[in-house]
Design goal:
The chain is mostly helical. The protein is built from ten helices and no strands.
């Protein structure tokens, strides 16, 4: 059986990256460029590690979902998130397809504990786009003009972490539920012989087959006296000759 999915590393890194992002935005707003630059370097290092572990987590959750419920392959789900500008659309396709796939699996397998996480998936995709849009616009503005955007970035970062916890905690539980319920492949029994020549004998119990064979081999004394070449045995030849003589005398 595969190991359970552990989402704690991604959660811890996300929680560490959040205050670093807040401090970076705060010192940027107050105009302390040196302090903001230091916090930004720390945030960048932790942020890269966070992205790596979140992508691994996302890939494993997609991979655990049975193939018949996947609209997207795990590699495509993660890889297309790194395509500039296209990922603004892809994040919606990615998370909506993921939560719907797990919900459909829960309905088909009669697992009521698997809930519809559509609203969480859409909210997380919106916050993802907001954070990237704010970062892109902030890079185009001059220093000192990004105050409102920095406040909005802090709000989006906090909200994104909350939705991340609510969404991935449940998705990880659903994925581990699938891993536990399907530990291996159940062997398929061989097909039974269908109707046709020889089907009846194939299904006849051994005891009846032996009895039938004995009945075939047991012969009467008259039958056992037949020659191997199929000629009439002597005892029947004598009897026939006597009947012929008796018939001649009568005539």
């Amino acid at each position: 059986m595969r190991k359970k999915i552990n989402w704690i590393p991604a959660l811890v890194l996300s929680c560490v990256a959040l205050p670093l992002d807040i401090f970076n935005s705060f010192y940027t707003m107050v105009g302390d460029a040196e302090a903001a630059e230091g916090w930004f370097v720390l945030y960048l290092l932790v942020g890269i590690a966070t992205i790596v572990f979140e992508c691994i987590l996302l890939y494993k959750i997609w991979e655990t979902l049975p193939a018949s419920y996947r609209k997207i392959t795990p590699g495509k789900a993660v890889g297309f998130m790194f395509i500039p500008f296209y990922n603004f659309y892809w994040v919606f396709e990615n998370y909506i397809s993921l939560v719907r796939g797990y919900y459909e699996y829960g309905k088909q397998t009669r697992k009521p504990e698997i809930k519809d996480l559509y609203s969480l998936g859409v909210t997380y995709a919106i916050l993802f786009n907001c954070m990237f849009a704010i970062g892109f616009i902030s890079g185009l503005l001059e220093e000192g003009q990004t105050g409102p955007l920095d406040l909005l970035s802090i709000f989006c970062s906090i909200a994104s972490l909350v939705i991340f916890i609510l969404l991935f905690k449940q998705l990880t539980e659903y994925a581990n539920m699938i891993l536990i319920s399907s530990p291996g492949i159940i062997p398929v029994p061989p097909p039974q012989p269908g109707p046709g020549p020889g089907a009846a004998s194939a299904q006849t119990p051994p005891a009846f087959q032996e009895k039938k064979q004995e009945e075939k081999t047991v012969q009467t004394p008259e039958q056992s006296s037949f020659n191997k070449d199929g000629n009439t045995p002597p005892v029947f030849q004598e009897k026939t000759q006597e009947e012929k003589i008796s018939l001649d005398c009568k005539l």
